[in-house]
Amino acid sequence: MKNSKTIEHYFKRFVPSPFSIAVILTIVVMLWVSLSMTSGNVSQNFIKVLSYWENGIWNESLLVFAYQMMLILVLGHILVLSQPMQKLLDVLTAPINSTAKAVVIVSVSTMLMAFFNWGLGLIFGAILVRKIGESCAERGFKLNYPLLGASGYIGLMVWHGGLSGSAPLKVAESGHLASLSPLAVPDFLATAETILSFENLLIFGLLLLLMPLLFLVLHSRSKSVVDIDLSISKVNSTLNYQDIIKFEKIRWPATLFGGIVLLTFAIQYKEYFLDFRLTPNMLNFLMLGLAFILHGNFYQFLKALKISISDVSGILIQFPLYFGIMGVMKDSGLAINIAEFFVSISTTETLPIFTFMSAGLLNIFVPSGGGQWVIQGPIIIESSHQLQVPLPKMLMAMAYGDQITNMLQPFWALPLLAITKLKAYQILPFTFWMFLIGSLIFIFGLVFIF
Hints:
With 450 residues, the chain is mostly helical. It contains 22 helices and no strands. The protein is globular, with a radius of gyration of 22 Å. The protein starts with a helix and ends with a helix. 48% of the residues are buried.
């Protein structure tokens, strides 16, 4: 920690952009698989790999999943840009006059938001960081802005154990587990056994307590300060939408339509609530209704939509690249081999730990919780059955591993970087420490709590 500036120097010098990382990982996986195939020559194997890659990019189920995830992110962003949420942000930023206060408020509030919804947490954290930065710059307070940016990214370290976690939501769907394994499995796992379990909530509580303390330690040992360019227009003032007709500025149509959406949501998903289940479609439906009501009219909603889409464009174009990597790793058997290796060296006591590690490794190449569950899910079900480890514990071990290496993989940081105007190399020295301490907390939780 004492050499934070030196670490940042190396990150700045050697870490490429998130898009370049996606391209580099694509090439690495292609060559890895081509050279590791035992049949055929390298050129023939490479042609096979290209077909695996193309199949992954256009996999229909993954494209549906990508659309669900993009909606979660965009709708979460739209909610954050509503006036009630903006007022909440103003309340949070008013008393801040130092980095110490800022990182505590940002990290805690971002983790709470991300536990509800990963997209909401990511965008809320990013906009909160930006607002604090602008407010302190106007009042003459110096901030460790990169550290503050890292604290706004912490939601991606807790999201998969929260209410929008892809794998826990998928297994809450009736028949999903049976579609992954021929073994005798439950029809579904209710979120009361996973996301809303006492064990998971306790681990989340530890993160809420310990991670802000880590930021305070990092602040005391790092004095990196970045001046904020106030010539860049603020978040609120960048909203601009043309060709608005009077109907779109009236309040009652948006409120009425939002109410209809929420009424349909309540009727359609009544049984899911009774079983304590949540799904991606449920969350999107709920956020869509709330977005219309909180914005008050279609005019404000459309302005927020325009900003939201532009700030997630980097993720949209990178999704196919990572789906291609997933296709290569899945069709070649590489992903299964990695997961099975960790299972082969496991015992009943260590299986959750090695599942956590394998999930973290796979997330570097496939930063998509739902896509990773498709690959790793069948192996988790089988190993859970063989070694008699409770399936909910195994599921959460995978979720924890998947989310922790987001602190090393900047794919999901793209919206935050766009909003805060930071670079990936500026926040990665701090997210690296978040990865280390967070890993220890999750391993402790899997061993002594779950």
